[in-house]
Amino acid sequence: MKVAFLRFLAACLGTLLVLFAGLALLLRTGQVDPLDWAWPAVPLLALVGWLASRGGGHGHARAHAIWVGLGTVLSILLLCRIAAARPPALSLSLLLAVSAALGLCGGLLLRRSRIGAIALIAAALLVPLAGRPPAVPMAPQRPSLAVLTALPLFWREGGQGLAAPADAPIVTVLRQHFDLRPFDTPLSPELAKARLLLIAQPRAMQPGELVAIDRWLRDGGRALILADPLLRWPSPLAPGDRRRAPAASLLGPLLAHWGVRLENTATLDEERHLLPDGRLMTFLAASHFIATAPACRTEARGLVARCWLGRGQAVQVADADLIDDRLWLADPSRPLDPSAWTADTPALVAGWLGAELHGDRRWVLSGAQLVLAVRWAAVAGIFWAAMGAILFSLRRGRFPPGADPGPRRRKTAKGA
How far apart are CA 283 and CA 381, in angstroms? Predict the structure, then answer.
């Protein structure tokens, strides 16, 4: 009984240790990736295999080690399934299982061949790299994208302005698929050369400039407009400084002419919104649109509006803060690495402009859902450890270590 309890305690604590260790990466980005648990699982399972090999290498010891490894993998997959309310990708689940199996085999082999064991454990640690999403690639053809904004997307705010160029992370990502061309006024020749337009919280424009945008759009242009009724973008400039982006959108007359109305902000909080396809948007003090004409329709609870005007199309988003890297990027130095994203903002912005950034990312639904996932995964791991301890203790009692039941059975068969 004492051996069974110690076996249960070791397996239970090991599984719980792996579960909580893998949460560190999940909490950093909010992405639910089974491979985040491979790094802590491999050393633990290697230790389990080594301890099993020290027991003399009996079949029941190896079988119990395999039982612990299987329970650890199943607990991880259960946590991922509940946290995201979607099953993890099959390819990532298989890679996790392969990594765990290699780590366990490495531990079992350690007493016989250190070099082979180290090779297996190293391979187990490298396997998860095969499931990491690739960096956003450079598209072979990059259409011209005109950008009209007062946000500091191309320069350091508070410094020397245009004399201190610096791309914001969202611009770094968009440059992989578009040839970005910032301009100051819609009357610029740059707008006429482009078929794509990004307008993000611009300064006040004259009526003639608004007419130029409307005419360009109806002639077949495609525009993405980020209109924020309460901009919360951090700025080192003093309030009222003309170099700061407007605190509220000044595009109301143009939007009303198209058939949408931007409502005032109802909350100052950060909000996460999951689209039906599983992609995540993160907003800050966002508002919503109301469609007032048949040519326009709203989606995502009014956060997004689409208008079809003439031969063109305009997508309007009721928040400009969403492209602030603080809302979608965990590490500002890695904007092209999707594993560092905390929301699907770059993929959504590119998609609204006609490009596709592929990748199937799964996100934690909420904090309450994550707590539920950890709870059930821990319960499942404890139950699995208890079942293993009971099962293998019974087997050990029936066939003591060193005994070979095969000859005994054969002798009984001859006596009969």
Answer: 36
Q: Which residue has the tokens 């337009």?
A: 197
DSSP three-state, residue 194:
coil
What does the alpha-carbon distance between residue 327 and residue 272 come to, in Å, rounded to a whole number?
A: 10
Are the CB atoms for 317 and 227 separated by under 8 Å?
Answer: yes
Cβ-based neighbours of 402, under 8 Å, separated by 6 or more: 56, 58
Amino acid at 269: D
Strands, sheet with 179-182, edge to edge from the N-terminal-most edge strand: 179-182, 144-149, 196-200, 222-226, 312-317, 304-309, 296-299
What tokens does 8 get? 């249960």
* Angstrom distances, CA of residue 82 to CA of 41, 66, 149, 312: 20, 25, 41, 42
| Angstrom distances, CA of residue 213 to CA of 131, 150, 292, 312, 323 | 44, 16, 20, 11, 22
Taking the CA of residue 179 as centre, how many other CA atoms within 13 Å lie in the half-sphere pointing to its CB? 10
Helix (H) or strand (E) holding 386: helix 367-398
103: CB partners within 8 A, 6+ apart: 41, 42, 43, 44, 45, 46, 49, 69, 120, 121, 124, 125
Per-residue confidence band for 413, with pLDDT thresholds at 50, 70 and 90: very low
- The torsion defined by the Cα of 138, 143, 149 and 155, in degrees rounded to 10, comes to 40
Which phi and psi angles does 283 have, rounded to 5°? -120, 165
DSSP state string for 323-372: GSGGGTBS-TT-TT-GGGBSSSHHHHHHHHTT--------B---HHHHHH
Beta-carbon contacts of 91 under 8 Å, excluding residues fewer than 6 positions away, are 131
- Whether this prediction's pTM lies above 0.90 is answered by no
Of residues 42, 47, 64, 63, the one with CA closest to residue 107:
47
State pLDDT tens for residues 68-105: 899 999 999 999 999 999 999 999 999 999 999 999 99
pLDDT value at 411 more than 50 = no
